[in-house]
Amino acid sequence: MLDWPGDGIAGVTPSVTRAAVLAHRFAAQQLHRPSPGLPAHELAVAGLGIPDVPAPAAVTAVAVRGGAVRGGTPGDGLVLVWGARGAPALHRRAELPWLAGALWPLSDADAAARIGTSRTRAAAALGLGAFTAVAHAVREVLAGGEPVSKAELSRGVTERVPDALSIDCAPCGARHVSGGLLQQAGLVGGAEVLRGGRAARYRLLPGLAVPTAAAGTPELLRRYLALLGPARPADVAAHLGTSVSEARRAWPGDLVEVSVDGRSAWSPAEDAEALGAAAPPATLRLLPAGDPWLVARDRGLVLPDRARHRDVWKPVAPPGVVLLRGEVAGTWRAAVTGRRLDVTVTPFAALPATAWRLAEHEAGLVAAARGVADVRLVRPS
User: Fold this and answer.
1) What is the DSSP letter of 141?
2) Percent of the chain predicted with pLDDT > 90
3) Coil, strand or helix: which one is 320?
4) Are 56 and 370 a contacting pair, CB within 8 Å?
5) Which end of the chain is more exposed for a tag (fewer CB within 10 A), N or C?
């Protein structure tokens, strides 16, 4: 239960501890595995999207929650698309029309904020027009039916949109549509991301239309708050890649304000009373890089030791994390050696013997999710 100062007097903000928030998130994200073998698309995290960078992070994220993984895939109920901020993530196939509207910018200012770097200033000035032009161009390029490479998709879109939407790319030695804009408008354009082989390919998804206005954004924000709340408007804005003022435009009306260790945050009303009721987890999980647990934008709450942030949220080749009793207690990486998966755990501090036994079990689960029969847990020397 929440701690209501003043016996619940109107206008007094209830308070909750950081530990209670983490316990609540652990339960909300089903990391306690309440329903082993649950179809992946029925997992709660599928409602917000399961990031898949680097692959096969999403498959591992499903497995560590007890979701069904067969043949190294999470089933037909999910599809890989460019989701929030244009990042590849698994989403429920049945919800793609809703997701396209929920991720569509709320206004020209919102579109400009999502595009927003100095290299794309001209594109940002076009606002919603930039998203609309790129979405239609993506649909035209993919209309042939055959999967195309990222280079082919980018080239085809570049040929079809105003030059203001392109940038001079030094690594490519060419001028092409902004990659960030392409990926943020790509879902609405109907782009499905196909893994396999040396590089991803893209094909047209049926049943999607380019919106004339955003729809469903408040529900998307509620899903973030249900899985990663209580949180602030700034956290949700960062998840979408927009400004706080634009996030507030879609702020759900049925939220409860709480104080998390002295800072205001918001939670869906139905979750507010449950805060503090969840028992702190007494187990260990090996979460993959980019796991929904790590998507939270209040990183100081997830990991108070800010010096460790650079170890966890690396911009390139980030590791997985060891979650022990709800706390980030170290990192891990996996590498295939022949037919064996080596899982190397690097704890931030010495782990008890029971934790290592749990880690060995979890490493087996990670290997099984990746379709590898043999696994070895590697400890620091």
Assistant:
1) H
2) 77
3) strand
4) yes
5) C
Q: Which pLDDT tens digit goes with each residue over 215-255? A: 999 999 999 999 999 999 999 999 999 999 999 999 998 89
Rounded Cα distance between 232 and 259, Å, is: 11
DSSP string covering 164-222: GGEEEETTTTEEEE-HHHHHHHHTTTTEEEE--SSS-EEEEPTT----SS--SHHHHHH
Q: Which of 364, 351, 77, 107 is nearest to 246 (CA)?
A: 107
Each residue's pLDDT tens digit, 24-64: 999 999 999 999 999 999 999 999 999 998 888 999 999 99
Burial letters 236-267, b for 16+ CB under 10 A, else e = bbbbbbbbeebbeebebeebbebbbeeeebbb
Residue 168 CB-half CA count within 13 A? 1
- In SS3 terms, 22-45 reads as HHHHHHHCCCCCCCCCECHHHCHH
> Distance from CA of residue 178 to its chain's centroid?
22
User: What residues does 39 pair with on adjacent strands?
Assistant: none
Q: Is 275 helix (H, G, I), strand (E, B) or coil?
A: coil
The model's pTM is 0.93
Q: What is the DSSP string of 337-356?
A: ETTEEEEEEEESSPPPHHHH
